[in-house]
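Section 3.1: Structural characterization of target chains.
Under the original work plan, the team committed to producing a structural model for every single-chain target entering the pipeline before any wet-lab resources were allocated. The record below documents one such target. The sequence was received from the expression subgroup and is listed exactly as submitted; it comprises 368 residues.
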Amino acid sequence: MKKFAALLFLLFSTLHWGELIAQVNPVDTNLYRVLKYNNQEYIGRIVSDDGREVLLETSALGKIFLVKSEIQSITIIHREIDFVGDEYRGIGVFTTRYQFSTNAFPLQKHENYALINLYGPEVHFSVSKNFSVGIMATWIASPIVLAMKYSIPTRNEKLNFGFGTLLGSVGYLNKGKGYGGLHWAMATYGDRKNNVTLSLGYSYLNTGLQSGDKIYQPGTYPITLTNGYWGFANLTPLNFKTPTTKAPILGIAGLASVGKKASFVFDIMFIFGKKVEENRSQIYQYVYSPITGDPSHTYVGPINSETKTTNSLNCLIMPGMRFQKSENKAFQVSLAGVIGYSTTQLSSQLSSKRYSFPVPMCTWFYKF
């Protein structure tokens, strides 16, 4: 009887100890993405972690051991958010971008991307948490633009704020004389797959190019006769500052998932431009001697100036579709176009015009 009681006590203790162990070490049912330094990634559940190796159970390869010194990051992922069908897509590095504008979502650490447009390439890097830097250019590397963005997450995962800036130069096309910039703030509501962004910014552009007729220093310049040839004095041209076009910008953009591998993208920008310049003119003529009829001097009259003010409203509409074949590649096409209206005030004359033209765009995205 004593032996039977001892056996029951041992059996009860064993079962009870097993329950305690199960409570202390619960089974980890989370799904993880393990990224190695060579950019290989594995998706699965962590069976064990002894500090040196991680035993990962994957659906494709079964159970595999991964050396921790070769692992760059281990992150929890969610099937209902990070998968399209049975394919892992993650939060998506490309979801930070629409067509031209961006949203307030940050680039994740070690997630950089490049894109190729018809007009030129871009590349953007995640420098630190919530801060990214990029370069935008044309195929001839002029003009070239420095892009920076800082994201400000909130406690509400669906509400994010951010600031961005573009600083550009015309480069070697005009000996570096032209410059421009765009600075904006934005607010994004939604998640990575379905969101809308409202942005407000201020832009300016100075091409550094001279416009209009040449203007010279007023005065009288003698004309001389030497060895049977008339000699005309060299006129001194005057240089004027090129006017800067300034424009507040209001933007609204959004992204909506419409299938497993497709998303609808729209990007609309209202640009309120203003340019103030001086229309200059002067009399330029040869004066002849009333006695001999020969030219005596060149007369350059005073400079007459009229202020010319041009106000414009341009709407840049960029609806398109994005097709993402994998986490690392995507293609986007936009049927973009510009609709504009401008008025020009010169003295007492006021003129206006309407215009529109297409700007089709194709973009290839690459994550690296």
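Residues 2-24 form the longest helix (23 residues).
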